[in-house]
Amino acid sequence: MSVDPQELRRVAGHFATGVTVVTAEHEGVTCGLTVNAFITVSLDPPLVLVSIGTASRSLPCVSSAPRFGISVLAEDQESIARIFAGKDDDKLTRVPARRGQTGVPLLEGAIAWLECRSEQRIAAGDHVLFLARVEGLGAGPGRPLLFFHGRYGRLAE
Ligand SMILES: Cc1cc2nc3c(=O)[nH]c(=O)nc-3n(C[C@H](O)[C@H](O)[C@H](O)COP(=O)(O)O)c2cc1C
């Protein structure tokens, strides 16, 4: 049975997720994109996985950088999710950002953040999976931005 990609997107969209922004820097150039394909793979050792489409303009930068950052967006950061879901060259200059302890770019205002060192890149269809070791992390107060049925949402009070 052949599966229509748009149908897969629609059905998979029933799986509600948070929203992250993956950021990196390579040779002085920063990049970033909105990502909800993020999972914690292992606690010990600490491994996470993100999946980035081969059409992503950020892919060469994330692939070349030794590390990348993952910022888990807060419910008031939908505009930031939209910026990083776009195609501008200078996305990181348009939002408040900071450096983590390992030097990776991270977004201010995120409710959690991880600093990750790429360990394996796995080609997977029209995406590349990045399996990475967590080298730094933290979390703060606040509630998450959500994504469901192709739309942003927030937790009910
Ligand atoms: C909520 C949301 C989640 C997304 N998750 C992913 C993802 O997990 N992987 C991916 O490659 N693109 C994902 N995208 C799409 C990218 O953010 C989008 O293609 C972006 O333009 C890529 O930017 P770039 O080409 O500058 O790298 C998502 C978009 C949205 C709105």
Task: Please outline what is shown here.
With 157 residues, the protein is mostly beta strands.
Mind explaining what this structure looks like?
By secondary structure, this protein is mainly beta. Helices cover 13% and strands 47% of the residues. The strands form 3 sheets. A 7-stranded antiparallel beta sheet has the order 3-2-6-9-10-5-4. A 3-stranded antiparallel beta sheet has the order 1-11-12, with no helix packed on it. Strands 7-8 form a two-stranded antiparallel sheet. It is globular, with a radius of gyration of 15 Å. Residues 19, 33-37, 51-53, 56-58, 84-87, 147 line the site of flavin mononucleotide.
Radius of gyration: 15 Å
On the 0-100 scale, what is the average pLDDT? 97
Bound small molecules, deduplicated = flavin mononucleotide
**Biggest sheet, in brief?**
7 strands, antiparallel
Shape: globular
CATH fold description:
Pnp Oxidase, Chain A
The tally of beta strands, per DSSP, is 12
N-to-C SSE string, H for helix and E for strand:
HEEEEEHEHEEEEEE
Assigned CATH architecture: Roll
**By helix and strand content, what is the structural category?**
mainly beta
Number of helices: 3
Spatial order of the strands in the main sheet? 3-2-6-9-10-5-4
Describe the oligomeric state of these chains in a short phrase: single chain
